[in-house]
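for the writeup, i need someone to sanity check this before i put it in the appendix. the sequnce is what the collaborator sent (i think, or maybe the updated version? ugh). structure was predicted straight from it, no edits. if anything looks off just tell me and ill rerun, i have time this weekend
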Amino acid sequence: MEICGWFHEATSRMVAITRLRNLSPSSRDAILRYGIDAGTMPPVKPARKITIEVPEELLRKAQDSTGEGITQTIRRGLQLVAAGRAYEDLRRLRGRVKISLDVRRLRDDRA
């Protein structure tokens, strides 16, 4: 029984190697690269740890609004503040950029 198991394992390896050889180089590289990287995590961007004082009621309302924990709620708030400038720039362009749209064509495109 032991010899049969060894033979089956060796045969399986040979079949796998043959299949790898028959793949295109890019597919083969992708498979081998996956095997090398399996179980590894991509590098995480460095983050700063901060301590802030926030009114309890404001934090509670913000968490109720996001449905997330404290860290995710604070992150989302910071993202909104960071995006605020882009929103202001877009508001300044209101009425200055001409966009010509054919509503009928847009509706026909949906169908």
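The first helix runs from residue 2 to 22. Helices lie at 2-22, 25-37, 56-66, 70-93, 103-110.
thx in advance!!
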